[in-house]
Amino acid sequence: PWTEEQGPVPEGGPWGRVRYEAVKKHLGAVGALSRQYWQYLACKVWQEGCEEEEKQQEEREASWGFPLVGQDYLEILSAWYCSFGKCCETGDCRIINNITGLEADLSEQLHGQHLAKEVVVRAVQGFLQSPRPQKALVLSFHGWTGTGKNFVARMVASHLYRDGLRSDCVRVFVSLLHFPHHNYVDSYKAQLQRQISEALQRCRQALLVFDEAEKLHSSLLDAIRPFMAQHDSEGQAHQQRSIFLFLSNLGGNTINEVALDFWRAGRAREEISLELLEQRLRLELQEAAENSYAHSHLLRENLIDFLVPFLPLEYHHVKLCARDAFLARGLPYTEATLDQVAQMMVFVPKEEKLFSAQGCKSVPQRINYFLP
């Protein structure tokens, strides 16, 4: 129903509109989709009518959702459109895999974490470039609260998926929120396995994030294990692009001790190597008493590819976080204001007052104090 494309044309250009109308007419003639399905497809692929789709999505969340078969059909249509419309290089318009943007934004917005920047970018890039990885990519983030673990997880999601954390390729689990009662662990285990399986079926490249990983019950960790283990059969091909991120405060004290030792020796924190910290982290996790995450199959069977250390943040890092918070809200600031925000934080150890005890966690809220 349309002529052959004569060269690259911007997605939002006139030819994109012609293609959009042609596909819409074709689908309307076939009558394959209901109005709800068409609205969903138009929003996901062409970003048309997304405001109405968001309202419908809220109603669906309160009552019903698209059947999984319908989701699969929409994904087939999306991939079919991409095959000739070049709306995305991955063949799935939900997946963007912008590693260049991830590296640039981490360099600009993640402060004081030279190891985390390097490890995350290299690990994700290498995994996505591998033609047939033998297992899921598993990264375990460790460090004090407020050092950037959740921030990096959000950045990974926003640069791998068009809709970021809202993408149906991404699932986020918070231990105390989703699995609060140990009495219901068997029910949680079944739900968790089902939700992971559905995510892997819906999306050939899924991102699973587990916050407060140290609080996960051992049975839940056992339930996750098969999805991360090595696989060779063609029947498990859908798992080959799954990425697991575990976020934990475990090991934070060990990381801080190393950073403090370097500071006392007059050495720059950028001299701290991944090999040194990873070795120290593994030792602490092995010695951790009565912690299901530390003693789980994840570590014993080497299912975790990288232990990613997040260093404690110093005074000048907190100032950079304050600057970013002002800029994000379009507010003016001065160096004196940034100093005032940083001085509101508690710094440890007691003698040196070197590291922010909360990292940058409460900085965005503290700038409200300085608004007119």
From TrEMBL:
GO terms for cellular component: endoplasmic reticulum lumen; nuclear envelope. GO terms for molecular function: ATP binding; ATP hydrolysis activity. Pfam families: TOR1A_C, Torsin. Residues 135-278 form the AAA+ ATPase domain. It comes from the Eukaryota. Belongs to the ClpA/ClpB family. Torsin subfamily. This is TOR3A protein. It comes from Leptocoma aspasia. The lineage of its organism: Eukaryota, Metazoa, Chordata, Craniata, Vertebrata.
